Amino acid sequence: MTALVEARGVTRTLPGAVPVTLVRDVSLAVGPGEFVAITGPSGSGKSSLLYLLGLLDRPTTGQVLIEGEDTAGLSAGALARIRRERIGFVFQFHFLLPEFTARENLLVPMRRAGGEEAALQARAAALLAGFGLGDAMDKLPEQLSGGMRQRVAVARALANDPALLLADEPTGNLDSANAAAMFDLFGEIVADGRRSIVVVTHDPVLAGRATRQVRLVDGRVVSDTATVPA
Amino acid sequence: MSDPAARFVALEGVSLRYGGAAQGTLAVQGLDIAIRRGEFAAVVGPSGCGKSTLMKLVTGLAPASEGAVIVGGHEVAGPLKIVGMAFQNPTLLPWRTTLDNVLLPLEIVEPYKATFRRDREKHVARARALLATVGLAGFEGKYPWELSGGMQQRASLCRSLIHEPALLMLDEPFAALDAFTREELWAVLQALWMERRFTCILVTHDLREAVYLADTVHVMSARPGRVIETRVIDLPRPRDLDASFAPDFVEIVQGLRARIAEARAEQLRAAA
Ligand SMILES: Nc1ncnc2c1ncn2[C@@H]1O[C@H](COP(=O)(O)OP(=O)(O)O)[C@@H](O)[C@H]1O
Ligand SMILES: Nc1ncnc2c1ncn2[C@@H]1O[C@H](COP(=O)(O)OP(=O)(O)O)[C@@H](O)[C@H]1O
Ligand SMILES: [Mg+2]
Ligand SMILES: [Mg+2]
């Protein structure tokens, strides 16, 4: 089984008078159906690792593979293409465009990928409805609650049906009920076994809802364990 | 009244109450304001007085409970399409390069949307030129995390202007930046405005920022907010930092500060 994303001996060091190493010799393979939580103290390199897995940054040494393909030699354009087609992102801030409705926000990446407008509109509506946002689709982000906004952000990340969803503290602005609901949603998203999710969180209770937990300290993986079902 | 350009944005006796009629919060009441086409207006006032509410009313994000909101000669009935917006919050998509972020509205807004793919080269050239005017030439391929906060806000301004909106709404856009970066961005925004002359409404709690940038400064009362003073700033342009320390400039700032202090004192007296 090919991993959807794999880091092999990845180290990332920022150059400078005093070089800073963000990620040290990390190896991690995430297969279809896996829901991985990356945990660790603040500053341990969680976000840095996620940026590397998402091809938003490049390793200093080591490799990042997407579906078995080494990305090291690829041009910026080729990386952007992989990202658009195969990776969805969610962050702590929703990054929805304030001028546009929930549906229009989903249509942005969809239109970029191409397709007939009516079909895209229908798909955007179906995706939002599937996330319990049927009544919210023609509302602006300002008009939605924080939890709803974050669900729209997840729907947008899935707009082009990527195999891999990467999330950096996606529940950082949510109360605990909404945060738990978001992790339940992630569980549903990987349930069909086609996709995988890697989510950074510093909340151990939420991490316990993932199927696997990877803990970073000082840029290194110190543990990598399957979650024991409660 | 007869000249629509003189009332490009107009609020007439507007009130807005959040949440139920009886127990809800009356955010603004008896709010009157008129902004000319091409004018740079600033709105200042004590925290919680309804400045962001005013922005929501103008852009159609929130309907008025009473009164009329008019933009471009039409009463606002729902979210407007002709506006660009920028806020204090980061809104550049982390997974897109600076250039792709700036191009974003063109992928969504007519008339650009329909021909975006065909005319991409032309749009890219325009976006690059716009980035160059705010000092971001050479950063087109960088991701937001590779830019400083000030650079991100410059890119956000470009994104809010690329589709040439008739109205630009800025709600505390520079509040999260350090003082030096903030002052640099005043000059950047002024240059963009002087070149393009869009109508601009800037909400800020920084009185120097308001006086540096605006043609008129509207002072709001404490909640429920209404405009209690409109001050015309007829200082010559382009204004610069040196000018912001000149006596005439400082005097205007002091006058505004005194007016807001009065509004806060009235609020405290009313609460006592
Ligand atoms: N651009 C940067 N320049 C210098 N140091 C950085 C930069 N980005 C991150 N760091 C540092 O690298 C370390 C790892 O950061 P990060 O990946 O954001 O950690 P986490 O997400 O676990 O809190 C931290 O010590 C952080 O301060
Ligand atoms: N969505 C909302 N629901 C209820 N009350 C709100 C809402 N938005 C703002 N308010 C209240 O309305 C008043 C004005 O808010 P706002 O316009 O954000 O003020 P400002 O931007 O001047 O600080 C405040 O008392 C605020 O708490
Ligand atoms: Mg982080
Ligand atoms: Mg506000």
Structure characteristics:
heterodimer, A: 230 residues, alpha/beta, Rossmann fold, 10 strands, B: 272 residues, binds adenosine-5'-diphosphate, binds magnesium ion
Describe the structure.
The complex is a heterodimer of chains A (230) and B (272). With 230 residues, chain A is of the alpha/beta class. Chain A has a single domain (5-226), classed as Rossmann fold. Helix content of chain A is 33%, strand content 27%. Chain A has helices spanning 46-53, 76-86, 102-113, 117-130, 146-157, 176-190, 204-207; strands at residues 5-14, 20-30, 35-39, 61-66, 69-70, 87-90, 164-168, 196-200, 212-217, 220-226. In chain A, the strands form 2 sheets. Chain A has a 6-stranded mixed beta sheet. In chain A, strands 2-1-4-5 form a 4-stranded antiparallel beta sheet, covered by helices on one side. The longest helix of chain A is centred in the C-terminal third of the chain and has 15 residues, at 176-190. Chain A is globular, with a radius of gyration of 17 Å. The mean pLDDT of chain A is 94. The mean pLDDT of chain B is 91. Chain B has a 6-stranded mixed beta sheet, with helices on both faces. In chain B, strand 4 (66-71) and strand 5 (74-75) form a beta hairpin. Chain B has helices at 51-59, 98-108, 120-133, 149-161, 179-196, 207-213, 247-271, and strands at 9-18, 25-35, 40-44, 66-71, 74-75, 83-87, 167-171, 199-203, 216-220, 227-232. Chain B has a single domain (43-61, 80-271), classed as P-loop containing nucleotide triphosphate hydrolases (Rossmann fold, 3-Layer(aba) Sandwich). The longest helix of chain B is centred in the C-terminal third of the chain and has 25 residues, at 247-271. In chain B, helix 4 (149-161) runs parallel beside helix 5. Chain B has 272 residues and is of the alpha/beta class. Chain B contains 7 helices and 10 strands. Chain A binds chain B through residues 51, 54, 56-57, 76, 80, 83, 87, 89, 91, 93, 95, 97-101, 104, 107-108, 111-112, 140, 142-143, and chain B through 56, 59, 61-62, 79, 81, 83-85, 87, 89-95, 97, 100, 104-105, 107-108, 113, 116, 141, 143, 145. Residues 18-19, 25, 27, 47-53, 223 of chain B line the site of one adenosine-5'-diphosphate (ADP).
